[in-house]
Amino acid sequence: MGFKADTSFLRFLSMGAVGVHRTMQRLRDRGFEPIELERYCGSNKIWTTKVKRLRLPDLLCIRTGMRAEVRAKTDLKIRMSDAPANPVRIWDAGLRDDDLVALITCFDTDDGLKPADDAVYFTVGALRASVHRSRLGPPKSASEGAERDRTWPAIVPTRDGTVLRVTNKRLIVQMKADAERSARRQTYTLGSKTVYVSPGDTFRAQTTILGGEPPGLANLSAYQQRRYAPLDDLQVDTAVDRYAAVKALRFRDDPRDQVIPALEDLVRRETEERVALEAAGSAAALGSEFGQEQITRFVWENDDRPDLRMEAVFILAEIGRSLFTREQLNRVLTDPLFEGDELRQAAVWALGKAGLQCYEDVLRFIDDVDENLALHAISAFGANTPRPIIDCLVQDLIVGDPRRAPAASEALRIIASDEVLQALVAAANAGEPVADWIIATLGRLPPDGVRAALRDSPLLDQITPMLLIAQGAHWLASESISTDIAFLLKQNLS
């Protein structure tokens, strides 16, 4: 099951997702219209079924056709993963000279990972032109063809400052004072590096790259004048270009009477199955019955390709709420063919907050005998869960079934909306005795809200001890501290 993976891998995924979201935000600020070209690059959800995707950049601007690969790290460097012995995993595989690489720092804070205000952009062409000056680090693992970090020398400041002077040999800056260090001048010897800043420019620590081996930063304004014509790219030879085109068409407003027939025709003749699947998804999203039929085929007729089945379920979630998508996802959940399969977990996830938000369909699975499915169902509820569904969960607390009641309590804790609190208080005030699971669930909600809702109620005295240990009530009652303590307690062998 995906979320049983180690926390270090989850942190790595989270960092990438945070970097993608901030980069997309800043590109929108500049007038671009980015979408995720690489599915789930902006998500940290872990699945054990590995989808064999094309080698794709993370982002695509559907207006200009600009593509960008996002690299988020805790330390800002011009760095790419490379596997020189494996052609499909070399650092620039599948990338064009004018594709962008967006490098962005993610800082560790008490509130979690926080991205830098903006990314630093290079073209792939600039990195290729200077690759002879880059360095390969040691293999990341002992496996054959293991990836290594390829790093281009660069000047990254460790604190904020201002550029004072630039010569052919030196870059001179004024570093600002901080809590531990006084203001001072800093001189960098350039060697073969190019300077990317000018006198008078200000810069941010671990956010700005002042200079490096690549011959220059990317000029984003040059991309803004481009006009993307994805319909034209449906005929090209490169699978990545066809894939980008079919995905873009789902999000654009090109005439449907042209787009749908073109997508359907591509599905019929496409030899690359991942392109065919994406084309079918875009056609289905635009109302094509043929596209819907093809998505169904990918789900039900691919016994030897579980990765394509998973991808098809992800696409159903992205298409959004409709009779077709809802029926297909519920069919996956109930058909014996997928009993014990992770595909069911993906389907219930797609019906929840990450997809269709059909919480009424998720409700029945919170106590499923398949524990992994039940946990995904419980976690699939969002803060926008409507009151009728909340009332059903509260009723489960009142009934008190030993398996379903704790599942309902956890779902309500995750939802944690004002309506959850109102429904629980209403149930508590409905009569005596108050169901134990009602009391227990109130004690798991944010303490301030519970105290305000139960002010002057005798029930508050009963719940107060529980509020002392509710999540967020004190310094030990946080997710990160709980994780650290659990980790320490596992270190119990001597």
Q: Which terms would index this structure?
A:
single chain, 494 residues, alpha+beta, OB fold (Dihydrolipoamide Acetyltransferase, E2P), 6-stranded mixed beta sheet, 4-stranded antiparallel beta sheet, 20 helices, globular
Q: Main sheet, how many strands, which sense, barrel? A: 6 strands, mixed
The gyration radius over C-alpha positions equals 26 Å
- Helices, by number, come to 20
> What fraction strand?
5-15%
What is the topological layout?
Layout: H1 7-29, E1 34-36, E2 59-61, E3 67-73, E4 78-82, E5 100-109, E6 112-115, E7 120-123, H2 124-129, E8 135-139, E9 148-152, E10 154-155, E11 161-166, E12 170-175, E13 184-189, E14 194-195, E15 202-203, E16 211-212, H3 220-223, H4 230-233, H5 239-251, H6 256-269, H7 273-285, H8 289-300, H9 306-319, H10 323-334, H11 342-351, H12 359-362, H13 371-379, H14 387-399, H15 404-415, H16 418-428, H17 436-442, H18 447-453, H19 458-467, H20 479-489
Parallel strand pairs: 3-5
Antiparallel strand pairs: 1-2, 2-3, 4-9, 5-6, 5-7, 8-9, 10-16, 11-12, 11-15, 12-13, 14-16
Overview of this protein structure:
This protein has helices at 7-29, 124-129, 220-223, 230-233, 239-251, 256-269, 273-285, 289-300, 306-319, 323-334, 342-351, 359-362, 371-379, 387-399, 404-415, 418-428, 436-442, 447-453, 458-467, 479-489, and strands at residues 34-36, 59-61, 67-73, 78-82, 100-109, 112-115, 120-123, 135-139, 148-152, 154-155, 161-166, 170-175, 184-189, 194-195, 202-203, 211-212. Strand 5 (100-109) and strand 6 (112-115) form a beta hairpin. Among the domains are: 2-151 and 215-222, no CATH class; 154-212, OB fold (Dihydrolipoamide Acetyltransferase, E2P); 381-494, no CATH class. With 494 residues, it is of the alpha+beta class. It contains 20 helices and 16 strands. Helices cover 42% and strands 15% of the residues. Helix 7 packs across helix 8 and helix 9 packs parallel to helix 11 (342-351). Strands 1, 2, 3, 5, 6 and 7 form a 6-stranded mixed β-sheet that branches. A 4-stranded antiparallel β-sheet has the order 13-12-11-15, with no helix packed on it. A 3-stranded antiparallel β-sheet has the order 4-9-8, with no helix packed on it.
